[in-house]
Amino acid sequence: MPQPDHIIRLDLPEKPEIGEDMEKYFQVCDEKIGFVPNVLRAYGMKPNKLRAFSKLYNEVMLAESGLSKLEREMIAVVVSCANHCYYCLVAHGQAVRALSGDPQLGEMLAMNYRVADLSPRQRAMCDAAWTLTKAPMDFAEADRQGLRDVGFSDEDIFDIVDTVGFYNYTNRVAHATEMMPNPQYHGMDR
After folding, report:
1. DSSP annotation string for 108-130
2. Which residues form a coiled coil (predicted)?
């Protein structure tokens, strides 16, 4: 199957000057997963934005939280489903497969999270992510209370909405630039 010949629909520098710190970051990515994600390569156009993006990603997705890494990846996929973001569905669907050990869960979340066998906690979290993406003005105290009722603290709720906001942002960047996922994601954790 032919692969697109672009990362994004903008001209990227052949060898961007991203600084020693980001070169090391790229090296860690390559060592850890075997490649540098195209989103990072795209942000290499603007090294300061690359630094800010990487720092925010690490805070949203890896910092201490009442949400597990899997739950944050699940949010990424549900938001990306609502937004039809191909890049994030592929990349974060793979992360869900890897973290859950379930080769179907990533696809279920990508297509329709409601068909997945989720715990009440995960279901409420995914419902919140969907509402905050599709109709954010409809999210209200009843929704926050529903999250509390399944065990989320107010700090956890903040982390949920922060993660939802982050992926709505990245989905828009990916859409506007026609960002393509690295082809390696497709075969991982199957």
Report:
1. HHHHHGGGS---HHHHHHHHHHH
2. none
* Residue type, position 61, single letter: M
Sign (positive or negative) of CA dihedral 53, 31, 15, 87: negative
Q: Quote the tokens at residue 135.
A: 């109709």
Give the rounded distance of the alpha carbon of 146 from its chain centre.
Answer: 24
Q: How far apart are CA 158 and CA 160, in angstroms?
A: 5
**Phi-psi sector, 173: left (phi>0), alpha (psi -120 to 50), beta:** alpha
Query: Is residue 27 scored above 80 in pLDDT?
Result: yes
Residues in the chain: 190
- In angstroms, how far is CA 49 from the centroid of its own chain? 17
pTM over 0.85: yes
Ordered structural domains, the chain, with CATH: 20-62 (1.20.5), 69-187 (1.20.1290.10)
